[in-house]
What we know:
The complex is a heterodimer.
Chain A: H1 2-13, H2 16-45, E1 49-50, E2 55-56, H3 62-69, H4 71-105, H5 109-120, H6 127-132, H7 134-138, H8 143-150, H9 165-189, H10 193-201, H11 206-235, H12 238-243, H13 251-260, H14 264-288
Antiparallel strand pairs in A: 1-2
Chain B: E1 7-16, E2 19-29, E3 34-38, H1 45-53, E4 60-65, E5 68-69, E6 80-83, H2 95-105, H3 110-123, H4 139-151, E7 157-161, H5 169-186, E8 189-194, H6 197-203, E9 206-211, E10 214-220, H7 221-226, H8 231-237, E11 240-245, E12 248-253, E13 258-260, E14 267-276, E15 280-287, E16 291-298, H9 299-304, E17 312-316, E18 322-324, E19 333-334, E20 340-341
Parallel strand pairs in B: 3-8, 3-9, 6-7, 7-8
Antiparallel strand pairs in B: 1-2, 1-4, 4-5, 9-10, 11-12, 12-18, 13-17, 14-15, 14-17, 15-16, 19-20
Amino acid sequence: MxxxxxxxxxxxxxxxxxxxxxxxxxLALVLSAFLVLPVIMIVVVSFWGTTEFSIYPAFQFDNxxxxxxxxxxxRVFLNTFKYAVxxxxxxxxxxxxxxxxxxxxxxxxxxQIALFLLCTxxxxxxxxxxMISWIPxxxxxGIANSALLSWGMIDAPLDWLLFSDFSVILAFVHLYTLFMVxxxxxxxMRIDRSLIEAANDAGAxxxxxxxxxxxxxxxxxxxxxxxxxxxxxxxxxxxxxxMSGSQSANVGRLISNDIALLQYPSAxxxxxxxxxxxxxxxxxxxxxxxxxxxx
Amino acid sequence: MxxxxxxxLVGLTKRYGSTTAVDAITHLFPxxxxxxxxxxxxCGKSSTLRMIAGHESVTEGAVxxxxxxxxRLPPARRGTAMMFQNYALFPHLSVxxxxxxxxxxxxxxTSTRRARALEMLDLVDMTQLAERLPAQLxxxxxxxxxxxRALVTEPQVLLLDEPLSALDPFLRVRMRGELRRLQRELGxxxxxxxxxxxxxxxxxxxxxVMNDAQIEQAGAARDVFDAPATAFVARFLGSxxxxxxxxGMAAIRVDALRVTDAPDAPLQGHVTGIEYxxxxxxxxxxxxxxxxxxxxxTDGDFFGAPxxxxxxxxxxxEAAAAHPLRGGGRTxxxxxxGEYTT
Lengths: 295, 342
C-alpha cells in the first residue's frame, strides 16, 4: 500500500520533459552506441598508420593522400555513381508507374492493399537469395539464354546477361524498386482527388495533369524514394560482388577488400569519403524539395 | 423567354448500379439566373451539378447549353466552370498561377495569362495576395481565388458546389453578398448547390428543391417559399407548419397563425413551449391529432397577452394563408435522415 502511494506520487509529478526524455532515450542510446560511436571510431581510425604487419594509432593524412592520389579511387567512385544514377532512373520510372497505377487506377481500397502486399512478397525472402536466384536464370546455360535460343531470337548465348553491369543493375532494380514505390504511393494517396477534377475542369489533358499537378505534388515522395535508393546503392558491396562475378568494383567493394586484407585505416578513410559524398548528395537533393510535409 | 445561353436539363438520370441518384429530372435555367439546387444530403443535387460540370457521366438524358447537348463533352469544352466545395486550389502554385492554370493549359503566353489572372483577381479583390501560396490564405481568401480561377475560363455557367459550407457564419453571410454581386456584374448563370435554405432564399432568383433524386418543386424563391407544393418542401424550407386539416394537408407559415379566443377556432390545443427570440416570440403548441405547430408572434403581441406552458390556446388564419399540399396524407412523416415518405 505505502509502496503504491510512494510510486504514484512522483509519477504524477513527472513533467512532460521527463516523459519526453524517457520516450526518446532507448533509441538515443541504441543509436549513440551502435551508430554515432562506430562512426567516430571510423573517423579516428582513418587517420591511423599502417605498416606491412601492424596498425598504429596516429594522426596523419597518409590514407587520404593515398586514396586521392590513386586513379583507381576515381574510377571506382565514378562506377558507383554510374550504378546509382542508372538504378535511380530505372527504379523511379518503374516505381512511379506502379505507384500511379495503385493510387489512381485501382478504385477500391481492398484491391489497393492487396496489390500493395503483392509488391512486398519478394521481401519475404532474403535479398541475397533473391540475388543468387538470378544466376541460374541469366547464366550462359541459363533459362533466359536457352529460351531465347529455342525461340530463334539469338544464335549464340548472350554473355552480357550475367556477371556484367547489366546483371548488377538488374539486381539493384529488382531489390530496390519497392523503396521507390512505397513513398511515392504514399504521397500520391494524399493528393486530393478534387485537384485532378479541377485540372480537368481547367482543360488540362491527362499528360498536362500529370506534368503540372501530379508530379509536382509527388516530388516529396520521389525525393524520399531517391534518398533510399541512392544510399542503398552507394553503400552496397554484396550485390556488385555477386552479380558482377567480382569483375566490377564499387566503393563498397573497395572497403570490403581493404577489410579482408586487414587494412582498417585505409578502409576507414574510404568509408569516411563515401559517407561525406553520400551526405553531400542527400544534402543537395534536399535543397530542391521540401520533404518536411511528408514526415 | 428562351435564350441561346439557357441551360436545360432533359430527363437527366444518374444510376450507380441499382441505385438511382438522379431520376430523370428536367429543368430549364434561363440565362443569367442565380439558381440554387436545394435539398438534404443524398438527394442528388451534387450528382446533378457534377453531371452538368462533366465530372460525372450521364446515364441517360441530356445537358443542353447554348443550344447543344454538352453531356458527352469533356468539362472544359462545355462552357461551364466549377468551383469545388473544398476549393481544390493547387497547393504548389501561387494564387496567380492557380488562376492562370487553365490559360497555361491552353498555351497562352506567360505575360498574357498573368495579366488575365490579375484582372480576375482584381474582380474578387485579391490582387495584393497574388504571389501567396493557397496554404497562406484564409478560407474566405481561398474561396475568392477559387472563384477567380473558375471565372478566368469565361464560362457561360458557373457551378458552385456548397461554396459557403466551409466558412464561418460571419464570412458566409459576407461571401454570399459577394457571390450575388459577382453574378449581377457578370450576368452569367450561377448554379449553386446548398443544403441551407437561408442561403438559397438569400441568393437565388430561382430555387430548385430536390428530394429523393427528383425535383420536388422549382420556381422563383418567393413563389416557392410562399406556396410550398409538398409537405417536404414546406418542412425543408422551414418557417411553415404542416398541419392536417379536415380538407387535407396544408402548409401555414408560422407568422400567419394568430392566437384567438374564439371558441370555434379551427386549431385548438395547449402551449408546450415558449422561446423568446428578441424581436419575436416562438410559441409551440400541441393541437388536435398530436400535431405540433409553431407560431411566431411579435414580442408586442405576445407580451400583450402572455401565455404559459400548459395553457389552452387556439389559432386562426386567413383562408389564403393555408396552402394545400399535394401528395399529402395524414401519416406524412419526416424520417430522421431527412427522407420523406408517404
